[in-house]
């Protein structure tokens, strides 16, 4: 402490006390005023000379400084009624060598509307920060980030370029992991709304009972304020509604109103608000089928589907496979600080013949793991997850004598081991054979 004081001249200390808090008072152990700043005196309509040395209760009405001195417990953010208004005050006891020598008090909000304003300002700032955190948690994609040169992908990219600048809603259909998010982002980036927010909501991830407030906001009667939902947050920008098929029918009606009348009504409110949003929606199941099952409103569907981008699953556009493979391999090599990694021919074949239910996302994840796990410069099939290796289990004949069938199985198993591993010692070890037996079998099967 002494050390600090040496560096902090009294004049500076006084300046800090004058300015650090709007209103500030220090009392001694008998609750007599030792210090009070100018601003506080002005408000109390006393001079500083009059105030200093007086019992604090004579100068500040409803003060609780003496209670804090008695209890030794701070009293923070507590309402204090002075001159006809409620203010928010902090009162803190001062201890020296374990003994209470006084207390200080500060008024942190001069009236409760100050507080209300600030609290609503803090909330909006927090909402914006939250939005940014979520926005930044995934990359902002552009059309050129979408790899692949299959006719399907080229066509969809071309259509995206044409329709993006308009304000029309867009529906993107495709299985999970096909790149729907990437297209939604690209549409926003290429539109005149790109300087305004891109807000995403995944209807399947938000619990149904919270979806209405998440989308349309909620009115809080206590604070008399509206907490904005995603629609309002996307004002002037793009609202990306992922998995729109999970949107309940009642909310589908509200969304349609937001699109047609450019108006929303927050939950618990009777007041409509104007909004200006472009909707990009995506679904990994066919919405037309949901209409037949009466789970999706026909009017909303027709409003959305005028521009539909249908992204085929990866297995139906394997022309993109090599582009995607090379792209991810380069990317993850760079991330992992590796200079040269290739795929063994068998690894490549296994990947190529897999049916990719998780689409591009699955390919990306598998390559990432394989690059990080690769000990040498070649990724062997053993680095692939079992679902890929199992999808390629060799088939064998089931007719003939048992001896013939077993010989066929033995040949196929040896063949697949030899393709995966060049070190025969390793193969013999894995199959529980001596090296000489392995060589005999290789010779017998002409491998
Ligand atoms: N054509 C592509 N080029 C490069 N990366 C791609 C491509 N398609 C998808 N990806 C990558 O695959 C991952 C999944 O893509 P995205 O999130 O856009 O899929 P999605 O269809 O929206 O999936 P979901 O329906 O599960 O939300 C992303 O990390 C993205 O980088």
Automatic annotation (TrEMBL):
<dbReference type="InterPro" id="IPR058031">
    <property type="entry name" value="AAA_lid_NorR"/>
</dbReference>
<dbReference type="InterPro" id="IPR025944">
    <property type="entry name" value="Sigma_54_int_dom_CS"/>
</dbReference>
<dbReference type="Pfam" id="PF02954">
    <property type="entry name" value="HTH_8"/>
</dbReference>
<dbReference type="Pfam" id="PF00158">
    <property type="entry name" value="Sigma54_activat"/>
</dbReference>
<dbReference type="InterPro" id="IPR025943">
    <property type="entry name" value="Sigma_54_int_dom_ATP-bd_2"/>
</dbReference>
<keyword id="KW-0067">ATP-binding</keyword>
<dbReference type="Pfam" id="PF25601">
    <property type="entry name" value="AAA_lid_14"/>
</dbReference>
<dbReference type="InterPro" id="IPR027417">
    <property type="entry name" value="P-loop_NTPase"/>
</dbReference>
<dbReference type="GO" id="GO:0005524">
    <property type="term" value="F:ATP binding"/>
</dbReference>
<feature type="domain" description="Sigma-54 factor interaction">
    <location>
        <begin position="146"/>
        <end position="372"/>
    </location>
</feature>
<keyword id="KW-0547">Nucleotide-binding</keyword>
<dbReference type="GO" id="GO:0006355">
    <property type="term" value="P:regulation of DNA-templated transcription"/>
</dbReference>
<dbReference type="InterPro" id="IPR003593">
    <property type="entry name" value="AAA+_ATPase"/>
</dbReference>
<keyword id="KW-0238">DNA-binding</keyword>
<keyword id="KW-0804">Transcription</keyword>
<dbReference type="InterPro" id="IPR002197">
    <property type="entry name" value="HTH_Fis"/>
</dbReference>
<protein>
    <submittedName>
        <fullName>Two-component system, NtrC family, response regulator AtoC</fullName>
    </submittedName>
</protein>
<feature type="domain" description="PAS">
    <location>
        <begin position="9"/>
        <end position="60"/>
    </location>
</feature>
<dbReference type="InterPro" id="IPR009057">
    <property type="entry name" value="Homeodomain-like_sf"/>
</dbReference>
<keyword id="KW-0805">Transcription regulation</keyword>
<dbReference type="InterPro" id="IPR002078">
    <property type="entry name" value="Sigma_54_int"/>
</dbReference>
<dbReference type="Pfam" id="PF00989">
    <property type="entry name" value="PAS"/>
</dbReference>
<dbReference type="InterPro" id="IPR000014">
    <property type="entry name" value="PAS"/>
</dbReference>
<dbReference type="InterPro" id="IPR025662">
    <property type="entry name" value="Sigma_54_int_dom_ATP-bd_1"/>
</dbReference>
<dbReference type="InterPro" id="IPR035965">
    <property type="entry name" value="PAS-like_dom_sf"/>
</dbReference>
<dbReference type="InterPro" id="IPR013767">
    <property type="entry name" value="PAS_fold"/>
</dbReference>
<dbReference type="GO" id="GO:0043565">
    <property type="term" value="F:sequence-specific DNA binding"/>
</dbReference>
């Amino acid at each position: 402490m002494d050390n600090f004081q040496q560096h902090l001249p009294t004049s500076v200390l006084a300046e800090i006390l004058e300015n650090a808090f709007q209103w500030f008072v220090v009392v001694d152990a008998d609750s007599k005023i030792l210090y009070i700043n100018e601003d506080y005196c002005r408000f109390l309509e006393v001079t500083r000379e009059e105030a200093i040395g007086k019992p604090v209760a004579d100068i500040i009405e409803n003060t609780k400084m003496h209670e804090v001195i008695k209890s030794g417990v701070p009293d923070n953010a507590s309402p204090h009624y002075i001159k006809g208004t409620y203010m928010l005050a902090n009162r803190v006891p001062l201890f020296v060598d374990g003994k209470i020598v006084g207390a200080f008090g500060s008024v942190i909000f001069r009236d409760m509307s100050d507080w209300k304003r600030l609290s609503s300002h803090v909330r909006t700032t927090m909402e914006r920060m939250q939005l940014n955190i979520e926005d930044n948690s995934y990359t902002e994609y552009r059309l050129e980030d979408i790899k692949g040169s299959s006719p399907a992908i080229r066509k969809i990219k071309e259509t995206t370029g044409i329709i993006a600048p308009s304000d029309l809603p867009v529906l993107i259909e495709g299985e999970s992991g096909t790149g729907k998010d990437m297209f939604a982002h690209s549409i926003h980036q290429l539109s005149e709304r790109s300087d305004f927010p891109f807000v995403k909501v995944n209807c399947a991830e938000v619990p149904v009972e919270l979806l209405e407030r998440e989308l349309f906001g909620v009115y809080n009667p206590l604070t008399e304020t509206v907490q904005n939902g995603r629609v309002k947050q996307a004002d002037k920008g793009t609202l990306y509604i992922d998995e729109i098929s999970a949107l309940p029918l009642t909310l589908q009606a509200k969304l349609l109103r937001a699109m047609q009348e450019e108006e929303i009504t927050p939950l618990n409110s009777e007041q409509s608000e104007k909004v200006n949003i472009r909707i990009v929606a995506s679904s990994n199941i066919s919405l037309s089928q949901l209409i037949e099952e009466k789970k999706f409103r026909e009017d909303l569907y027709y409003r959305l589907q005028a521009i539909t981008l249908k992204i085929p699953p990866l297995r139906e556009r394997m022309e993109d496979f090599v582009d995607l493979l090379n792209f991810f391999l380069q990317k993850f090599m760079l991330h992992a600080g590796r200079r040269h990694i290739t795929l063994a021919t068998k690894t490549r074949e296994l990947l190529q013949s897999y049916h990719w239910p998780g689409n591009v996302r699955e390919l990306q994840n598998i390559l990432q793991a394989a690059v990080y796990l690769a000990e040498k410069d070649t990724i062997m099939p053993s680095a692939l997850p079992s679902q890929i290796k199992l999808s390629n289990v060799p088939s064998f004949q089931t007719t003939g004598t048992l001896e013939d069938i077993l010989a066929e199985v033995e040949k196929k198993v040896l063949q697949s081991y030899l393709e995966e591993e060049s070190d025969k010692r390793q193969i013999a070890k894995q199959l529980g054979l001596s090296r000489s037996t392995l060589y005999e079998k290789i010779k017998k099967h002409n491998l």
